[in-house]
Amino acid sequence: MYKILIADDEMIERMVLRKKLIDNFKDRCEIRVAENGREVVDKFRQFEADLLILDIEMPGMNGLEAAEAIRKMGSDCSIIFLTAFNEFDYAKKAISVHALEYLLKPCDDKELVLSVEEAMRVSILKKSSSQIESYEEGSRSQASTADAILRYIEDHYGEELSVQVMADKFAYSEVYFCRLFKQHFGESFISFLTDYRIKKAVELLKTTGMSVKEIGKKVGYEDSNYFTKVFKRVMKALPSEYRTTDQ
């Protein structure tokens, strides 16, 4: 269960924010609330949240001060600041405590949800030693997320791949994965995967004696008729026309 601690000195703001999180994430999250920075620090000692969503302007101890205190405890939890004040000093201080996001009130619901989803992904990567780390972290190298995704496609293009499968592998929501993929590759995941599979099919047609049906299966198409249809749509020709010799 992903643990979120939200803080705002306005009761209505707290209630609205909590409801938005419940509506979007349902039973994926355990949510607790605080009225000020001091209460955030006290509750964090017991709750150890994965994500803090903090208003900045709160009486006593504000959100930035609470975040600083929690960082001094050694926590690397994700932090999202919500504030009605677009002030440069606030933004600089948010950077100093390694905040994940700095959102202005009233923030767009989609922007909030995407930020929380990214915080969840970060948390999963920190806690997991699964295949995700091996592809995305790669022995703690500096490989980018785009490189990790591309390597996964290269290694698994012949398997059953979908947006859902890829999003799960890299701990994203499907919406966030699609957005990220389009940003890095300039086209949708399905379009990219189709072109990649057909490219590999062309190589096999030119260099092996495998049948069209065998090649279709090898590049991820169980139905040979569907493979032929996709191939013709992409290459404007039938698979057999790409043979270098008669098979």
Produce a short descriptive summary.
With 247 residues, the chain is an alpha/beta fold. It folds into 3 domains: 2-127, Response regulator (Rossmann fold), CATH 3.40.50; 131-186; 190-242, Orthogonal Bundle (Arc Repressor Mutant, subunit A), CATH 1.10.10. Helices cover 56% and strands 11% of the residues.
Write structural notes for this entry:
The protein is of the alpha/beta class and 247 residues long. The protein has 3 domains: 126 residues, Response regulator (Rossmann fold); 56 residues; 53 residues, Arc Repressor Mutant, subunit A (Orthogonal Bundle), CATH 1.10.10.60. Helices cover 56% and strands 11% of the residues. The protein is built from 12 helices and 5 strands. The chain has a 5-stranded parallel beta sheet, sandwiched between helices. α4 links the parallel β4 and β5. It is elongated, with a radius of gyration of 24 Å. 28% of the residues are buried.
Topology:
Layout: E1 2-7, H1 11-25, E2 29-34, H2 37-47, E3 51-55, H3 63-72, E4 78-83, H4 88-96, E5 101-104, H5 109-127, H6 131-136, H7 145-156, H8 163-169, H9 174-185, H10 189-207, H11 212-218, H12 224-235
Parallel strand pairs: 1-2, 1-3, 3-4, 4-5
What's the total count of β strands? 5
Uncertain stretches: 136-140
Structural class: alpha/beta
Can you summarize the main beta sheet? Answer: 5 strands, parallel
- Identify the overall geometry: elongated
Order of helices and strands: EHEHEHEHEHHHHHHHH
Into which percent range does the helicity of residues fall? 55-70%
Count of alpha/pi helices: 12
CATH class of the largest domain: Alpha Beta
The named CATH superfamily of the largest domain = Response regulator
Q: Predict the CATH topology of the largest domain.
A: Rossmann fold
Spatial order of the strands forming the largest sheet: 2-1-3-4-5
Q: What's the end-to-end separation, in Å?
A: 56 Å
Tell me the domain tally.
3
Average per-residue pLDDT, rounded, comes to: 84
Modified residues (4-aspartylphosphate): 55
Protein name: Stage 0 sporulation protein A homolog
Keywords: DNA-binding, Phosphoprotein, Transcription, Transcription regulation
Organism: Butyrivibrio fibrisolvens
